[in-house]
Amino acid sequence: MDIASMIMGASIASVAWIAFYPWAKLKRLAELEASAEGREVGNSGSQGVDG
Length: 51
What we know:
94% helix
């Protein structure tokens, strides 16, 4: 394996990482927001029923 193919492989890996990592973070953020909204709806709903 020569240096050029090693550099090319590293370039592809870094571009893939730059593309994948923010996507994974955004997916996690969307999950956290959905669960937070679910809790807020549940809390306000239970307060309305109880009181």
